[in-house]
Design brief:
Elements: H1 2-16, H2 21-33, H3 37-50, H4 55-67, H5 71-84, H6 88-100, H7 104-117, H8 122-134, H9 138-151, H10 156-168, H11 172-185, H12 190-202, H13 206-217, H14 223-236, H15 240-253, H16 258-270, H17 274-287, H18 292-301, H19 309-312
Helix pairs in contact: 1-2, 2-3, 3-4, 4-5, 5-6, 6-7, 6-8, 7-8, 8-9, 9-10, 10-11, 11-12, 12-13, 12-14, 13-14, 14-15, 14-16, 15-16, 16-17, 16-18, 17-18
């Protein structure tokens, strides 16, 4: 009742003083409060018609377009704003929207415009990194993240993203360095221990991998993943007893972790326990019918026996089973 009465009174006031934008603003905010977005858009348009330079109304209009997923329309409004107020924030917003549309060259242009205004604007640097990564230009993406870290050395997400990029380029020493720096800033970062352990395993620094995993296990999170990695480490060291113990521990900690059963099955196959291997590989596929590694491993095991997995193991379903 109060909203209806307020609307009626504001409409009367705006009709009496149609050029007075404060009544249109009041109506627009009233409509926003009750989520009448089309009506709010109409009021902001009236304000812009009266005062084309009104940045507040333009900003709200752009945000309303975004609520309705009208990205191209929002870009057009932000470009109007940029002509009136050349701000790094506006160019950054436009760049983000072009990125959402997969218009990467236009996004790069806007992020670079933002950096011309403010060379230290880290969000625009990260924006460039994301665009280059989406274009699979890992070298330039890496350079932008390296620059972003200089500008914002306490932002842990930057170290994480840079480590991922180094990993894609198989720059394992730099992966290790980034995860170590990340753990200095965030010693409780579970994913950093996992990433660092992977890198140590990849570079065959198994003692370092075990030490890293032992530290990570103390956090008490994602323990099944830690024990899988510990099992992989022991397996690489040919310590079959500890490898089996670790994989079993992982499967006990999380009965639905398909990877735990896959690695346990692969371990049993390597150590000559074929029946147990098949049982665990089948379990991995039961838990995850898209587990390509488990399905392929079974295929490899029976390749010389003329067995068709889809026919002879119909209960496991899996990739290519038609289910």
């Amino acid at each position: 009742g109060d909203i209806k009465r307020a609307k009626e009174e504001l409409n009367i006031a705006s009709n009496l003083s149609p050029e007075d934008i404060k009544y249109h603003f009041a109506l627009a905010f009233l409509y926003l409060s009750v989520k009448f977005y089309d009506d709010a858009e109409g009021e902001f348009r009236k304000i812009i018609k009266i005062d084309p330079e009104n940045l507040i109304a333009l900003n709200y209009l752009a945000e309303l377009y975004l609520l309705d997923d009208k990205i191209q329309e929002a870009i057009a409004i932000y470009e109007q704003i940029a002509q009136k107020k050349n701000s790094e924030f506006v160019h950054f917003n436009i760049g983000q929207l072009y990125f959402r549309l997969n218009k990467f060259d236009e996004a790069i242009e806007q992020f670079e415009e933002a950096l011309k205004i403010n060379p230290n604007y880290v969000n625009a640097v990260v924006g460039l990194a994301l665009v280059y990564e989406a274009k699979n230009n890992l070298e330039d993406a890496t350079k932008q993240y390296e620059k972003a870290i200089i500008l914002s050395p306490l932002d842990t997400r930057l170290y994480r993203q840079l480590a991922v990029l180094y990993n894609k380029q198989k720059r394992v020493d730099e992966v290790i360095a980034q995860y170590r720096r990340l753990l200095e800033l965030a010693p409780d970062e579970t994913e950093a221990y996992i990433g660092l352990a992977y890198a140590y395993i990849w570079s065959k620094k198994f003692e370092n991998a075990r030490k890293t995993l032992s530290e990570g296990i103390k956090l008490g999170k994602k323990l099944d993943q830690f024990y899988i990695l510990l099992g992989i480490t022991y397996s690489e060291e040919k310590n079959n007893k500890e490898a089996e113990s670790s994989f079993l521990k992982a499967s006990e900690l999380n009965l639905k972790n398909a990877d735990a059963y896959f690695y346990l099955g692969a371990h049993y196959e390597r150590t000559g326990r074929r029946e147990e291997s098949v049982l665990n590989l089948k379990k991995a596929i039961e838990l995850n019918s898209e587990h390509a590694d488990a399905y392929n491993y079974l295929g490899y095991m029976f390749a010389d026996e003329g067995i068709n997995l889809k026919i002879d193991f119909p209960d496991i379903g899996g990739i290519g089973s038609g289910e």
